[in-house]
Design goal:
GO terms for molecular function: ATP binding; protein kinase activity. This protein has 21 helices and ten strands. It has 497 residues and is α+β, with helices and mostly antiparallel strands.
Length: 497
Amino acid sequence: MSSVLSSFFSRDPRTSFPYSLPTETFTVLTQEQINVGKSLKKSEPQEKATCFWTLNANSTSLKIQAQKLKTLRHPNVLAYLDSLEVEGSFYLITEPCRPLAYYLSETKLTSTQLELVVSWGLYQVLNCLKFLHNEAKLSQNNMRNAIFVTSSGDWKLAAFQSSGSLSSPQVDLNDLASVVLQIFTKNDSLDISSPSALSKIPKRIHPLYKRLCAKLRAVMTVGDILNECRANGGFMKNKFVDTLLFLDEFQLREAPEKQSFFVRLNTNLEPFPEDIARNKILPKLIHTYEYGDAGAHILLPMFKLGKLLDEDEYQQRIVPCLVKLFSSSDRTTRVKLLEKIDEFSCRLKPQVVNDKIYPNLITGFLDSNSAVRESTVKAIVSFADKLNYNNLNNDLMKYLAKLQGSDPEPSIRTNTTICLGKIGCFIDASHRQRILISAFTRALKDPFPPARLSGVIALSATQQYFSLNEVAQKVLPNLCPLAVDPEKQFFLFPIWE
């Protein structure tokens, strides 16, 4: 009994702590000598985190930070997850983040991107200061070291160990001016009162910078500065900030606004850095489609951003959404999805195609809307190499035979023949000759001239699969009458080798 109790009381708390504790740092906060490393949730390793820790008894500052983060809740305050004190060391776990200076040094940004990223980041920081000053009645008092950037590119405040009661917004705003100066000059020793300071930063930010540098009598409230920056011509009035704010407020917008936003979004994505595009915008799009009313317009930007994901991320985040899209009853969504099939078909696993997509895809062959039927025929070419034996050689061939032989739309009959010509190489060799000759000779008798021509071209493209006996007995007897076809395009024999 005593040994059990001894074991219980001597257990290392690190073993039961829900987050992993790093052994390596990726940076150090030099002001407080606080290590920063990567962490993750042990029970769910895909949930990443950041660990701040000290390896000595002098951990008072970090403890204060942890306590402040626990009690301060705001979208732009760094999210507290957990903390642990053991053997004189203190560990603080937060959402994944990097110090601002480290983020900017590690992220490749063009000068235009840097301005846009800073406009969004300063908007978020000022929005947080507005909360601190107006609601919490606090002054941050450590702005130069307080800004951290999350994996989705959001700027958040932490390092509240020096925060205190608010007397004037000047301290925080002047410190923020120093941050702006350091971003663009990469010089943390240059004073904001230096005559040359203004010439070191982009002109578009000059009005805001002057507001941040203002002395006590001229200091504006943070709310007034935000309003000025978001007014027409202001530093934060741009498509970059507008886009991210719209996504944050998406549920409050009317349906026509949402549709218009997604129509424009695809052309507005170029300036966004990869981390914001991949980790902020794309998850919003996926969530919006799954739980909202975004409609078909969301597809183009979602596919465009999906290209940024590695294989595992794509399978986890995009493929489930694609599976759901293929089950959509909205015809506009189905057609737009099928038109863009080449952008994602190569990333779909055969099992997903056969088990989850193909059963929904083939319903398009029977749809009363001709646009859906035609888009389905064209799209099947991109999936043919992934279909299993039964789906390709038995099931699909029945649908294509019916479309080619009896669809009232001549363009669909034509495209069905073209489709068979393209996927012929995937059909099982024991069935291929019979299926293709039957289909293509049927096309040669179609009353629609382009359908007849498609049969000729398909025969030429797949001739290597036909025996001489079949050519002599079945192909040539059907092909020769076209030599006197009234349509001029059927001077065909030079293409038959």
